[in-house]
Amino acid sequence: MADRKQGNERGGGWLSRFAPGVRKIVSRRDTPDNLWVKDPDSGEMLYRADLETSLWVTPSGRHMRINADQRLRYIFDEGQFEPVAAPDVPEDPLKFSDGKPYRDRLQAARKAAGRKDTMAIGAGDIDGTPAVVIVQDFSFMGGSLGMAAGEAFVAAAREAVRREVPLVCFTAAGGARMQEGALSLMQMARTTLAIQELKAARLPYVVVLTDPTTGGVTASYAMLGDVHLAEPGALIGFAGPRVIEATIREKLPPGFQRAEYLQEKGMVDRVVTRPELPSVLSNILSILMDARNASRAA
């Protein structure tokens, strides 16, 4: 027994003697902590690589939340696009603190999400159709609408006008950013004016509502599109269902504020699965652009 123990110590264990370097390969430190992801619906453990291949749509059909970088790669042809920079804005103009300074919250959010703010903009082809796409990243402070997000939206709209291509907006937000007070609410008006610039240029504006789209975003640019698409199961509304139930003291209908319910009521034009989105968007955009070009020619 002692000889076996000494042999293991000298040789690093029987596995290492038969396959040198195996210990390093299978080291616990080299094993990703997020190799498996739990399905929120079934509780089943899903292999992360399989989820990435399926565009983060689970076998149960749940469209899991994805970040802005993933969204841009999935929507553009071959994942190729030209990033469009958003203007810088003053940080913490109100010197706000809710127990923690807003500047510190921004720094923490940037470190966690790996981006400067919630919006990301790209220009490229969607199934062969040129477009500018702006994506709201819920992982950055709940996709909250602040000055940076408003400036990014205006920049995206003007880039679409400059290129004479449609604008597609993927929404995902919990509402306005309270740390910026009235300055965040002003972005509802500014983004609305940016959409008017698109309309003046007769360029299509298409919105894809993802989970969740709520608050001031729903009360502004999320509901001003020429066409409104939504991912399956997305929560879409102004106030959340629990707030509404507490206010009216009534039980809401099944599926209330979900994409399918809103399609049935006419608030959403079509519910589209994530793998279908590029082709569906391309068809819609090309039809709208053909109509625009025919009108201009006439």
Q: Tags for this entry?
A:
globular; 2-enoyl-CoA Hydratase, Chain A, domain 1; seven-stranded mixed β-sheet; 15% strand; 298 residues
**Rough shape?**
globular
Tally of extended strands? 9
Instruction: State the helix count.
Output: 11
Q: Helicity level, as a percent range?
A: 25-40%
CATH architecture: Alpha-Beta Complex
Low-confidence stretches: 4-31
The percent range for strand residues is 15-25%
Strand numbers in spatial order across the main sheet: 3-4-5-6-7-8-9
Give the N-to-C terminal Cα separation. 94 Å
Q: What string, H for helix and E for strand, traces the elements in order?
A: HHHEEHHEHEEHEHEEHHEH
Gyration radius, to the nearest Å?
24 Å
Report the average pLDDT across residues: 90
Which homologous superfamily in CATH is the superfamily?
Answer: 2-enoyl-CoA Hydratase, Chain A, domain 1
CATH uppermost class: Alpha Beta
Largest sheet: 7 strands, mixed
Backbone structural class: alpha/beta
Summary?
This protein is an alpha/beta fold. It contains eleven helices and nine strands. The strands form two sheets. The protein has a seven-stranded mixed β-sheet with strand order 3-4-5-6-7-8-9, with helices on both faces.
Structure description:
- Helices cover 39% and strands 15% of the residues.
- It is α/β, with parallel strands linked by helices.
- The protein has a single domain (63-297), classed as 2-enoyl-CoA Hydratase, Chain A, domain 1, CATH 3.90.226.10.
- The strands form two sheets. The protein has a seven-stranded mixed sheet with strand order 3-4-5-6-7-8-9, with helices on both faces.
- Helix 7 (147-163) runs parallel beside helix 8.
- The model is unreliable at 4-31 (pLDDT under 50).
